[in-house]
Amino acid sequence: MPLPRPRDPGRPGPDGPGRPRLWHACAVSTETISAEEFASHRPRVFGLAYRMLGSAQEAEDTVQDAYLRWRGARRADIERPAAWLAKTVTHLCLNRLTSARARREEYVGTWLPEPVITSGGALGPLESAEQRDAVSMALLVVLERLTPTERAVYVLREAFAYGHREIAGVLDTSEANSRQLYRRAARAVAAGRTRFEPEPRPHRELVEAFLAAARDGDVAGLEKLLAADVTWWGDGGGKVTAARRPVLGREKVVRFLVGGMRTFGAAMDFSYAEVNGAPAVLARVEGTLVGTASFELSGDGAVIGVRAVVNPDKLAYAERQVAPV
Asked: Which of 215, 163, 187, 139 has the alpha carbon at shortest distance from 12?
């Protein structure tokens, strides 16, 4: 069923002190809708879709769908483009999430979000710990536990600083319901959040030490870096070799890592990158990206989680990001 053209949600009222507006409303009087105008909103639109879907490629498709609706709309129906696009993209994502849930229930092995290299600003500014956390692999996994509507409310509130009046306009619901949905989402997210949000510099140093120890097969070095209850998640989608289930505990993770490096490490080139706002490792074979690994740290600086994506379908967007121009 096609999505009806969204109504402008209206100019928001204040919803608490100190919450910055990231989507600025602006009245437009021209009669035509230009591609250039849409392009100016595209980074935020893509960032919203990615946070909603956990898939860069589906986010791109959603942005394209929104653009087609944008081109087909009358200028008189779009008083404030940013608000119109936020509503359009949110509803397109809600439609996609319904079918995505069924697909992910049949997914082979562990499902992880598609990695995005964020050092170039692909998901917008990530200057604060809160902004980095909003696109982290760990948080995106937790967001999968929410209902589609809870996820929409949480993303709009936390990542884009929407007030509940704005959210109610986007979702065609009441402010009271928006608040209730947010409370439920926030409780679920808090229950699954990482125990520690590291600063980039020590995190990077730890990732580089981890990579050096793995390359050298340094079991003792790896054991020093890993928490006793560390977990390794691997997403191969049934298309390449990967752990079908999480690998639990320091001893098993070290054994898994050393064995994998002996089997595949010699053929791979490793490099450091920022993936989803956090330091990570990229693995290439003959120049082709074959995997990413993102790290999660505990309060004492030990690795408590590693999320490795090796499904080639999920690496397509990141591969385009790192491909030479």
From this structure: 163
Give pTM, 2 decimals. 0.84
Q: What is the pairing mode between strands 303-309 and 278-285?
A: unpaired
DSSP-based three-state secondary structure for 252 = helix
Max Cα–Cα distance, the chain, nearest Å: 67
**CB 49, CB 63: distance < 8 Å:** yes
Helix residue spans in the chain (DSSP H): 35-53, 56-72, 81-105, 129-133, 137-143, 148-158, 164-171, 175-192, 200-216, 219-225, 250-264, 316-322
Q: Are 227 and 302 in contact (CB under 8 A)?
A: yes
pLDDT in tens, 133-164: 889 999 999 999 999 999 999 999 999 999 99
* DSSP string covering 266-287: GG-EEEEEEETTEEEEEEEETT
Question: What is the set of domains in the chain, with CATH numbers?
Answer: 35-192 (1.20.140), 200-322 (3.10.450.50)
Report the distance separating Cα 266 and Cα 96, nearest Å.
40
Tokens of 279: 């330091």
Q: Taking Cα atoms as reference points, which of 72, 95, 96, 70 lies closest to residue 84? A: 70
Predicted confidence (pLDDT) at residue 223 exceeds the cutoff of 70: yes
- Nearest CA to 281 out of 270, 289, 290 is that of 270
Phi, psi angle pair for 231, to nearest 5°:
-130, 135
Q: How many residues does the chain have?
A: 325
Per-residue pLDDT of 69-104, as tens digits, reads 998 888 778 889 999 999 999 999 999 998 887 787
Q: Which residue has the higher pLDDT, 77 or 60?
A: 60
